From TrEMBL:
Residues 4-235 form the ABC transporter domain. It comes from Blastococcus haudaquaticus. One of its GO terms (cellular component) is ATP-binding cassette (ABC) transporter complex, substrate-binding subunit-containing. CDD domains: ABC_MalK_N. GO terms for molecular function: ABC-type transporter activity; ATP binding; ATP hydrolysis activity. The keyword Membrane applies. This is Carbohydrate ABC transporter ATP-binding protein, CUT1 family. Pfam families: ABC_tran (PF00005), OB_MalK (PF17912).
Length: 384
């Protein structure tokens, strides 16, 4: 097992915009690190540079403290699981898993021992004589993982390994990968564009945008303290609501009404005429259900509910609002970049399933002021 260190890594294809642009990232020994971001952000390129499938334009890549920039992939002792599994169709499951050991000329009884161990862990014991064509997508995925774990590799690298599976299987495999990684305690780098995978699998998540790191943090920190609009919009489902706001002392005037904020936080907003507030759907509550003792911690406002969606354990209410052009243009661009629906002329509010609010009627909402994020609409930076 080994730590992976990246120092000022750049990847330049031709003379265009760098695909990876000055990335420095330390992945600790045994850590599960997720690389996430929208299509084209450079996450696969970064992974391929760790494995050695892509040359590094500049910067240093260290594995286990050793510089590997000029080391061939086979000499890096890493195990990679690809999206399409890359199984050999003419070989049995047993031989597919054994393949890396055959390459390294491991003695037969050692091969048998390791393949048996891996197939036990992955529950493939009953399928060892089958060919990949006769396996389900999930089983093929496990064979690919088996092949990765029979070798005593320094680290596992995954490139969107679940994206070809249906939603149910994806959920199952996610749990399996997570369990396996904890059990083996092996350094893991996992590329995905799926934020559920990013939030549930990793110890830490590295969010990339246009080849640059935006934030490296635990899933919880990304959710609670996103450093900018991009991370805030990328993490969370349904996504964070962004509303225009004008600061007035300790208040922020928004299309929904005024939000009182802590004077210390308000102090950081001096000099801004127009701000963007970010509020997660789940930071709202139906005001009629909020305990009296907690009301003073937030702001209450009235709004007309356009549509409601009942989900069993909660419900969504959609609230239309008007925003100035400057804000909507920026949000439209951000939505496009995040490949998210352009829902920025309405807010989504997640409330308790027992709430009695109705479509087409006014309702009273309560908002926990401590959970309001404030961004600079020009730079996108989180100001508080
Ligand atoms: P996706 O999720 O779509 O796979 P990604 O975040 O993994 O995207 P990369 O595949 O790393 O992104 O690509 C990053 C950028 O580098 C993109 O703009 C891509 O077009 C470009 N790129 C990738 N491979 C090459 C190549 N071989 N030649 C030229 N440009 C490339």
């Amino acid at each position: 097992m080994a730590a992976i260190e990246m120092k000022n890594i750049v990847k330049q294809y031709g003379d265009g915009f760098p695909a990876v642009n000055d990335v420095s990232l330390d992945i600790a020994d045994g850590e599960f690190m997720i690389l996430v971001g929208p299509s084209g952000c450079g996450k696969s390129t970064l992974l391929r540079m760790i494995v050695g499938l892509e040359d590094i334009t500049s910067g240093d890549m260290l594995i286990g403290g050793k510089r590997v920039n000029d080391l061939a992939p086979r000499d890096r002792n890493l195990s990679m699981v690809f999206q399409n599994y890359a199984l050999y169709p003419h070989m049995t499951v047993y031989e597919n898993i054994a393949f890396p050991l055959r390459l390294s000329k491991t003695p037969d009884d050692e091969v048998r021992r390791r393949v048996t161990e891996a197939s036990d862990v992955l529950e493939l014991k009953d399928h060892l004589e089958r060919k990949p064509a006769n396996l389900s997508g999930g089983q093929r995925q496990r064979v690919a993982m088996g092949r990765a774990i029979v070798r005593q590799a320094e680290a596992f690298l995954f490139d969107e390994p679940l994206s070809n599976l249906d939603a149910k299987l994806r959920g199952q495999m996610r749990t399996e990968i997570s369990r396996l990684q904890r059990r083996l305690g092996i350094t893991t780098v996992y590329v995905t564009h799926d934020q559920t995978e990013a939030m549930t699998l990793g110890d830490r998540v590295c969010v990339l945008r246009k080849g640059k790191i935006q934030q490296v943090a635990s899933p919880r920190e990304l959710y609670e303290q996103p450093v900018n609009l991009f991370v805030a919009g990328f993490i969370g489902s349904p996504p964070m609501n962004f509303l225009p706001a004008v600061p007035k002392g300790n208040r922020l005037e928004t299309p929904f009404g005024d939000i009182e904020i802590d004077p210390a936080r308000a102090g950081k907003l001096a000099g801004h005429d127009l701000l963007m507030v970010g509020i997660r759907p789940e930071s709202f509550e139906d005001a009629t259900l909020v305990e009296e003792s907690k009301r003073h911690l937030g702001s209450t406002f009235r709004a007309r509910v356009d549509v409601t969606e009942w989900l069993g354990d909660s419900q969504f209410a959609y609230i239309p609002y008007e925003a100035p052009e400057a804000i909507t243009t920026q949000l439209r661009d951000l939505s496009r970049e995040l490949d998210a629906e352009d829902l920025r002329t309405q807010a989504i509010v997640s409330i308790d399933s027992t709430s009695r609010m109705r479509e087409g009627r006014e309702a009273e909402f309560w908002l926990d002021s401590r959970k309001v994020h404030v961004f600079d609409p020009e730079t996108g930076e989180n100001l508080t």
